[in-house]
Design brief:
- This protein has 193 residues and is mostly helical.
- It has two domains: 51 residues; 137 residues, no CATH class.
- 79% of the residues lie in helices and 0% in strands.
- α3 runs antiparallel to α6.
- The longest helix has 28 residues.
């Protein structure tokens, strides 16, 4: 359904002479990515508003986005799998936020420390279909480690001032990215499909 809609959009704009006919597949793919992103973000927005966890969600998503860009990781092989994994990860995040209670500080420190070690050992992980040069790898590694350290310090400060849910939000975002990093590394090595 989304593919057909994106193809229709591309055809419409091609008919309006906004881009050449030989680029219709590229534009259709771009529209497909855009539509999937809007749907994913829309679902997360609805869940966020329904649960009232606005600040926690924004911290979590911000952490995932900025760190994931630098450390890389697993990419699903279809849009639907990507959507399921993204929204599923967000739901797991919310479950931790709602049910961690007095353990949130300990969970934050544990996953943040584990994640920092994973970043130091393995980041970045490139996607096998999108290799990057050595200079970019070094830059991403440096940025990923620096961001991880800054996020670790932020979590410590938030725990110190008793904002445990916010610390947990950042820690779980960092942890999700590091799980993705490990899965991407294993996939690149042929350990998983």
């Amino acid at each position: 359904m989304i593919r057909r809609l994106s193809e229709s959009m591309a055809q419409f704009f091609c008919d309006k002479k906004l881009f050449p006919k030989d680029e219709i597949d590229t534009y259709a793919y771009g529209y497909e990515i855009m539509l999937i992103s809007v749907i994913n973000w829309g679902i997360i927005l609805i869940i966020m508003l329904f649960t009232g966890k606005v600040i926690e969600t924004l911290l979590y998503m911000f952490t995932v986005i900025i760190l994931r860009h630098n450390v890389g990781g697993y990419h699903a092989d279809s849009h639907i799998k990507c959507s399921i994994l993204s929204i599923g990860s967000y739901i797991v995040f919310l479950i931790f936020i709602f049910f961690s209670g007095k353990l949130s500080a300990y969970i934050s420190l544990l996953v943040q420390t584990l994640s920092l070690a994973i970043t130091f050992l393995f980041a970045p992980v490139e996607h096998i279909n999108n290799p990057i040069d050595e200079t970019a790898m070094k830059k991403h590694r440096k940025n990923g480690i620096l961001l991880s350290i800054l996020l670790y310090i932020t979590v410590i400060i938030l725990l110190y001032i008793k904002m445990h849910n916010l610390a947990l939000s950042i820690s779980l975002g960092v942890f999700q990215v590091n799980i993705s990093l490990l899965l991407g590394m294993y996939r690149n090595r042929g350990i998983m499909n």
